[in-house]
Write a structure and sequence with these properties.
The structure is a single chain. By secondary structure, this protein is mainly α. The protein has three domains: 77 residues, Serine Threonine Protein Phosphatase 5, Tetratricopeptide repeat (Alpha Horseshoe), CATH 1.25.40.10; 117 residues, Serine Threonine Protein Phosphatase 5, Tetratricopeptide repeat (Alpha Horseshoe), CATH 1.25.40.10; 114 residues, Zincin-like (2-Layer Sandwich). Helix content is 65%, strand content 4%. A three-stranded mixed beta sheet has the order 1-3-2. Helix 7 packs antiparallel against helix 8, helix 9 packs antiparallel against helix 10 and helix 13 crosses helix 17. The longest helix is centred in the first third of the chain and has 22 residues. The radius of gyration is 24 Å and the shape is globular. 36% of the residues are buried.
């Protein structure tokens, strides 16, 4: 290799690193300018093409992103990052689980000696199979993650979370326990372990993990776009106005309380620490004038910090407050979760 070629390769590596750093900081324009310089040095470089694909994703240009990733794979058929990025775009951006699954099958043979990448590909494979209602095959994909030595707690937690959704409890426990060995303060891993122990009837361990989840969640700074108390109340009031007048009249005796998150005693009793809202009391269709006064009055609770954590923007938060409030009022009127799904309030 000539000294000029070596210097050029070094320059490209530095440019790619610089551009990815800018992307992480949210400077898409800056990353694109640096990427253009890298393309001028070597337009057939797999790393540069993958970078260009990631920038296209940030722009929402997903077809262009797939073209760039495919170019990277053609330049280097073993370029696992481009394959994983392709799977992600197909599944999460374009909603095409079939193409995601095909990409995963294409990627798996080259991950035999790369446990981190293999875990990520198997996670996408399981998610794609879930979307296709092929849950048994998804569980099998997750079983293949067992025994992989991975040092990334986020990747392990992701597999554990998918396993919880699939009720693959042994896989979930293994992955989440591994994540917590690496990062004992991983809130999402504690949260998942709470579900594992709840399923197994081990309430003491469930409490330990979910109370720790609450503690860690409360320590996270609130987003810059969070709503003030007055703004939050205004959104809730607007949502209530969507209800028919008769429904609003019946709700006048049901206070709406806004709290950051469930209280520790509620969580100790098995309440999800990340629940967005809750109706407490007797549904309207179960009440009778002959009944004695209830020990606890009817109340609808909205958990502001949990709602904020579930959203990525102020607009999404406003929408989620509306949906959660309408969901909980529907519980007051006696609708069950499956009925709420049918009317779009699941």
């Amino acid at each position: 290799m000539s000294s000029d070629k070596h210097a050029c390769d070094h320059d490209v590596v530095d440019l790619v690193d610089e551009a990815f750093g800018l992307l992480e900081e949210g400077d898409v324009d800056g990353a694109e300018r640096v990427c253009q310089h890298a393309l001028e040095h070597d337009q057939g470089n797999a790393e540069v093409l993958t970078l260009a694909g990631c920038i296209a994703c940030e722009r929402g240009a997903f077809t262009e992103a797939l073209d760039r990733f495919e170019g990277a794979i053609q330049a280097d058929p073993n370029h696992i990052v481009a394959l994983i990025d392709t799977a992600e775009v197909h599944l999460e951006m374009l909603g095409d689980p079939e193409k995601c699954l095909a990409t995963c099958e294409r990627a798996l043979p080259i991950t035999v000696d790369d446990p981190d990448s293999r875990l990520e590909v198997l996670a996408y494979k399981a998610l794609a199979l879930m979307e296709l209602d092929r849950d048994e095959e998804a569980r099998s994909a997750l079983q293949a993650t067992k025994g992989l030595e991975v040092g990334d707690p986020d990747a392990l937690e992701r597999v554990g979370g998918i396993a919880v959704a699939l009720e693959a409890w042994d896989v979930a426990e293994g992955a989440l326990s591994a994540a917590l060995r690496i990062d004992p303060d991983h809130a999402d891993a504690h949260y998942g372990m709470g579900w594992v122990h709840l399923e197994r009837g081990d309430m003491a361990e469930m409490r330990t993990h979910w109370l720790r989840t609450l503690e860690l969640d409360q320590a996270v700074p609130r987003p810059d776009w969070h709503l003030t108390t007055q703004e939050f109340d205004a959104v809730a009031e607007k949502a209530l106005l969507e209800l028919p007048e008769r429904a609003r009249t019946l709700l006048r005796t049901v206070p709406i309380v806004v709290e950051d998150a469930p209280a520790a005693p509620e969580i100790e009793d098995g309440l999800d620490p990340r629940v967005l809202g809750l109706f407490c009391g007797a549904p309207l269709d179960e009440q009778s004038h002959m009944d004695p006064a209830p020990e606890e009055p009817n109340v609808i609770k909205l958990y502001q910090r949990n709602l904020e954590a579930a959203c990525l923007s102020r607009d999404e938060l406003v929408s989620e407050i509306r949906m959660t409030l309408l969901h909980e009022t529907a519980h007051y009127f006696g609708l069950e979760d499956d009925e709420l799904e049918q009317i779009g309030l699941g």
